[in-house]
Amino acid sequence: MGYAVTPQNSPVEICHFHGLQQPGPNCSSSKCSIVKVSTSHITCLIKCSRRSHSCLLWRVDDGSEKVVFSSRCGGLQGSVCIDRDESDQDEWRSSENHNPFVKRKFKEQISSKKLLNSLMSTLDGPFVRNNEETNNDILQKFCSNGKLNDASRLIEIMARQNQIPHFPSCINLVRGFLKVNELDKAAKVLQVMVMSGGIPDNITYNMMVRGLCKRGRIKSAIDLLEDMSLSGCPPDVITYNTIIRFMSDNGIIDQAVGFWKDQLRKGCPPYLITYTILIELVCKHYGTVRAMEVLQDIASEGCYPDIVTYNSLLNFNCKHGKYEDAALVIYNIISHGMEPNAITYNTLIHSLCNHGYWDEVDEILSIMKETSHPPTVVTYNILINGLCKYGLLDHAINFLDEMVSQNCSPDIVTYNTLLGALSKEQMMEEALQLFQFLGGSSCSPGLITYNTVIDGLTRSGDMKKAMWLYDQMLKNGICPDDITHRCLVWGFCRADQVEGAIEILRVMAERKHRVGNSAYKMVIHGLCESGKV
Known about the structure:
Layout (H helix, E strand, L loop, with lengths): L1 E3 L8 E5 L16 E3 L5 H10 L1 E7 L5 E7 L7 E6 L4 H9 L2 H25 L7 H13 L3 H13 L6 H13 L3 H13 L6 H13 L3 H13 L6 H13 L3 H13 L6 H15 L1 H12 L7 H13 L3 H13 L6 H13 L3 H13 L6 H13 L3 H13 L6 H13 L3 H12 L7 H13 L3 H13 L6 H13 L3 H13 L6 H13 L4
Antiparallel strand pairs: 1-2, 2-3, 4-5, 5-6
Helix pairs in contact: 4-5, 5-6, 6-7, 6-8, 8-9, 8-10, 9-10, 10-11, 10-12, 11-12, 12-13, 12-14, 14-15, 14-16, 16-17, 16-18, 18-19, 18-20, 19-20, 20-21, 20-22, 21-22, 22-23, 22-24, 23-24, 24-25, 24-26
């Protein structure tokens, strides 16, 4: 039996023929088999055939058999297959039986496969032999003990074994990986969970979206939105807000606008909170005029602004003193058939009070009184606070009288604001009168109220009235705090009544209130001055 071998790049043939007679050009298919081989490694093939080779017998689909010469040459990455006819079987089996090397090689390959499987089994540990319930019990213990990597590896093994992991544990694992910034590991667990039929919740998905955005992978975060919908957990307002805010932080506001419009076209609910945040960001980066243009643009997608959106724009402009832009917002409110509400007016009054524009404040108040949104207790509190900051206590008290006359009952914020201003101006007689009036009203003085008046009395040196108020405080069931006691310590020290200060320090120690170094210094200084050290 002889062979003629030629390789592949110039298509040649390998002829397997019988006997010693050389095959001629008309070699019949019954006498020889033809196989295409590569010519690029002809030299290597010849050299390797002289060194060592092995021959394996393989069955194929058509019932014939192939012998594979497997070369150990690194330059030839593959084997040469030679088809054989049925008439060759006896001869090949005979030659095979006389080649123990072939059998040994075949056994080595099977042993290698078994070794690989054994190695994988060893790496996977006992988990591969456990049933689904047992592995899930182990998974829950891993998660409870914070063994994130072990839990992740177990989930991978369960997936290979077609076992369904415990979904709550998967959710906890995803959140755990996200908290330690292991985003890729979290994504793998999330994918296994979804492919196993689990439905993650919005909190988990939103954490994933936030993690992607923090890494600058905003496109991946947007792609995740579609996965959310397909998994049965559609994005919510927090999801959209997160993406829009991160787009803004990266200076791609136009893309944020396009993203929101695209979501609206896909059937996303027109969340006004998301819409308002987007408009605020546009206003912040590009100004009010551009924000108004975006309002009109998004309205064409069926998402219309309401008074809340306009009030947000108004608040932004008023905080920055941009009153021309604020006027533009008011104009758009009215031109779209909407009416400013109490929040609109209060926003304007608050800004105008902070800048001391009292004439404009009076004008806004007059307009409010003519509309269906008259001044509220919030409006008056804004006015009184602004006037007190500018030291205009007479005007502030006048507004208090106006409140009462308009059947607008003052609240504790109103009284605390006025008491704080009176105490600051050392008008303690007026402050005590107002305090007495407060006691007879529907509002009861609280801890802040007592502390405000006690601080004013100690600053004025009237420790007798301060301690009287302190006793009233205890009698009414209001527990003094460390601020109360510090005010009294400082007051006693200023009034050269060190014994009183020491007594308050004892009370503070009993109540475990924090005593600052300055209080101790004042007491020590007072003791030194009185020669009692």
